[in-house]
Amino acid sequence: MYRIRQRKLRTCLLRTKPSERHPGRAINFITALLFGSLLFSLSTSQSRAQVPQTSRLIDLSLEELGNINITSVSKKEQRLADTPASIYVITGDAARRSGMRRLPDILRLAPNLQVAQITANSFAITMRGFNSSSANKLLVMKDGRTIYTPLYSGVFWDVQDVMLENIDRIEVISGPGGTLWGANAVNGIINIITKETDVKDVDFARAEVDGVGHNMVIQHHGTLGKNGGSYRVYGKTEQGSPSSRTDGSSAQDSWGRSQTGFRVDLTNLTIQGDAYRGVAELLIPQRQINTGANLLMRWTEAHDDGAEIRVQSYLDYTKRIIPALFTESMQTLDLDIQYATPAGGTTQTIWGGGYRYTADQVGNSDQLAFLPAQRNLRWANLFIQHEKQLRPDLSLTVGTKLESNIYTGLEFLPSIKITRKLQNDRLLWAGLARSVRAPSRLDVDFFVPGKSPYLLAGGPNFQSELANTMELGWRQQAQRWSYSLTLSHSEFMRLRSVKPLPDGVLVLANQIHGNVNALEAWGSYQATPTLAFDIGGVILREHFCGRNLSRSSQGNDPRAQWTLGGRWNIHDNQYLTINVRHVDSLPAPFIPAYTSVDANFNWQLSKRAELSLSGRNLFNPHHQEFASTASNLVKNPILLERSVGIKLTVRF
């Protein structure tokens, strides 16, 4: 079943024009002031008294990074250096020292992700292709809680936020993960993992302002008496300025959001939750309103023989009001149970199951409708994964998942992977997997306009999109350098298309197929104990064919992108981070290639005060990253402009 059918595919991806380049321009005054402050601090650093370090050396040494335990690949703790997957880990220290303050911007640190900003508060994020404002082949989780919406199988990034100081790590895995995580883990997984609470943590407040907005946060930590538990609570508020268009006019997309949350850690139990409210300016007088809340409980028990059982459940509520277009209210209940046999010996088995129920209520308009307006969605799954050590340097992992949904019934998600570990932390792996993107309400229940006669209608017989993926990967870890290479080939079948009916109505169908080839590579070099460099990139080749295929029907992706970063601990109380990112041109609609340079300088002023100066897009006054096919955005696009910011953190 894993043999991918050989088809004669005609290339439907049109070549794009040579990328447009912007001439170099002088850095403006405020940017010069930022680097002037840096030079001043360098000249005075030796005369200052020593203060405690806020970041050990250069984040983590390469050896320590290889020893980080990750959980998203196999649903168990594994050393990063031993994990047979194309995985990039954004550590909490790397996120904080980047100078980024929003989650989508922090995700730019992962070279295997495609991150493009559309408006002041909306993003297109994917990996291995298919990028759009409604990208739907990437599974995103926070502490194991799924955050994609069944409305269109994507993520509303404008309501996803996390406290920067609470990030432990972000695991970004390229490739299918359906065997363990289910449908929608087609091209990759992002799992945002927050820190456990610690009685040693200190309270703090932070204020930040830059060219695109400002925010304020406060966080308190405490203990729960004699039982040894600890907790934290936080609150934050954020405001975003409107974007500008090419003609200098405002895009009228300013936004604001407030969020509060907590986490409690007991011996075997974690309870955490968040609540938020956001508003966004629209072209019409009324504003978009987003509200939501979630509560998660996770119980884990480790037996003396090494076996482990975990039970996790969460409640999630979201409401989105877009005046004159639609409203949506969604309530979700999820339960997941997992058991892992002892890891000793030559075999280990992980098995479990889960159930999710969502009640979705949509308020329709004359422009569009989801029919029926109310839909009760259910998913149930059983999975098993078995790992066997064939010999000391060779292991085989096989697994499968059975998952049901209300649209297509039972889906079968198998995978197989063989891994060889050589001396000196060298790892070679190869894998095959079948994954699906199950239908969403957009595929089946969507109608335009909101009343008959319709121009566009959901497909009552819409099937799951199918992907068969082969991967070959290599990773090597040395004392001062490490690198990872992954080559993948995915064949897609039954991709979403538009089928015209005899009466002129367009119906969503599954008439497109094709393949995507990707080469992902990244590495790190630790030049000195206080200076390190990171480099990474992706080369992507896509070929699609089928009926009624348009240039933009399968996303808008660059053929290549690369990142280059440097981390320098200047002094015990000062460090500098610089990140360079280049993205090739996009074909449909055409977006010129661009190169962006971001920098952040952090200065620990005292034991309690910390100052950070950051700059975005420093050597280019503005650039465009993505666009809708709507004519007003193509002809007068939204631009991302150069900005400089300052942040002050006070601990108490």
Walk me through the topology.
Blueprint: H1 29-44, H2 62-66, E1 69-70, E2 78-79, E3 86-91, H3 92-97, H4 103-106, E4 114-119, E5 122-126, E6 138-142, E7 145-146, E8 167-174, H5 178-181, E9 188-194, E10 204-210, E11 213-223, E12 230-240, E13 244-245, E14 255-265, E15 269-281, E16 287-302, E17 308-322, E18 326-340, E19 347-363, E20 369-370, E21 374-391, E22 394-405, E23 409-422, E24 426-437, H6 441-444, E25 446-448, E26 456-457, E27 465-477, E28 481-500, E29 506-528, E30 531-546, E31 560-571, E32 574-583, E33 586-587, E34 590-591, E35 594-604, E36 609-616, E37 622-623, H7 631-635, E38 638-641, E39 643-651
Parallel strand pairs: 6-9, 26-29
Antiparallel strand pairs: 1-2, 3-8, 4-5, 6-7, 8-9, 10-11, 10-39, 11-12, 12-14, 13-38, 14-15, 15-16, 16-17, 17-18, 18-19, 19-21, 20-25, 21-22, 22-23, 23-24, 24-27, 25-26, 27-28, 28-29, 29-30, 30-31, 31-32, 32-35, 33-34, 35-36, 36-39, 37-38
